[in-house]
Design goal:
single chain; UDP-N-acetylmuramoyl-L-alanine:D-glutamate ligase; kinase; 10 helices; binds magnesium ion; alpha/beta; EC 2.7.1.50; binds adenosine-5'-triphosphate; transferase; binds 2-(4-methyl-thiazol-5-yl)-ethanol; Hydroxyethylthiazole kinase
């Protein structure tokens, strides 16, 4: 089945809205992929910021339109910064997303991820190992990425097939997808529509980029170029999406 009414058309319109509104996305992002994520957001048309200083993070979160919390290189300072920033997002009703990177490697990180999830993010996104260990996340849109992305909210599941295997060979494509979801949530309050738009944009840009690439190295640059050049009509022409209830 393809085509729940208007979802793909809405995704295409959201891409144009991100370009026009240029949302500010504050990223508490792991140190491995900060540049890749900032460049990807900028290519899309959003405005990234990245500080994790406990002195400044509340002011940055207050200024931002959406927040990404990524646990990839967690330490005491980052835990404190995350608590401060998420408190601002909650009280100011800003959309925020948790990416529980490597929560399957460490009991302490898993406990912190669960604490964050219980405090009410809009979205939780991880790869299969991370999402399988986390389990329930009541009231949160759960997204498991991979060859097919699965978005689950209550009893509704959306599957997005777009993407390319080169994505799994470039560190940070998952982290970037979380940041792109935040950018789309900044311009669309319906988080399922926002996340669908972001993952279609990312997956379709990756397919276009792969046609011009000879491996993961050239793909990385071509992916950024394709995100910058992506048009709403590319989303409408190339979306591979299905929906299920129950
Ligand atoms: N085999 C594949 N075919 C198509 N798309 C893929 C494939 N593997 C991953 N992707 C896409 O790559 C992106 C990253 O997904 P993945 O599940 O690999 O995240 P991740 O492990 O958290 O990545 P990272 O930690 O490096 O940021 C998603 O947008 C997903 O759709
Ligand atoms: C490889 C790696 N290690 C910590 S974060 C990160 C990149 C995103 O998963
Ligand atoms: Mg990851």
């Amino acid at each position: 089945m393809t085509g729940e009414t208007g979802f793909v058309e809405n995704a295409a319109a959201l891409l144009a809205r991100v370009r026009q509104q240029r949302p500010r996305v504050h990223c508490l992002m792991n140190t491995v992929v900060q540049k890749f994520v900032a460049d990807g957001l900028a290519a899309l048309g959003a405005i990234p910021s990245m500080t994790s200083s406990t002195e400044e993070v509340e002011a940055f979160a207050q200024r931002a339109d959406a927040l990404v919390v990524n646990l990839g290189t967690l330490d005491e300072g980052r835990r404190a910064a995350i608590r401060l920033a998420t408190a601002v997002a909650r009280s100011a009703h800003k959309p925020w997303i948790v990416d529980p990177v490597h929560c399957d490697y460490s009991p302490s990180r898993l406990a912190f991820a669960r604490e964050l999830i219980a405090s009410g993010p809009s979205v939780l996104r991880g790869n299969a190992s991370e999402m399988d260990i986390i389990g329930e996340a009541n009231g949160v849109l759960k997204i498991k990425t991979g060859a097919v992305d699965e978005l689950t909210l209550d009893r509704h599941t959306t599957r997005i097939e777009n993407g390319h295997p080169f994505m799994a060979q470039v560190t940070g494509t998952g982290c970037l997808s979380g940041a792109l979801i935040a950018a789309f949530m900044a311009v669309e309050r319906d988080r399922l529509r926002a996340a669908t738009g972001a993952l279609l944009a990312s997956g379709i840009a990756a397919e276009i980029a792969a046609q011009r690439s000879s491996g993961p190295g050239t793909f990385e640059a071509a992916f950024r170029d394709a995100l910058a050049a992506l048009r709403p009509e590319d989303i409408i022409a190339n979306a591979r999406i299905s929906y299920a209830e129950g």
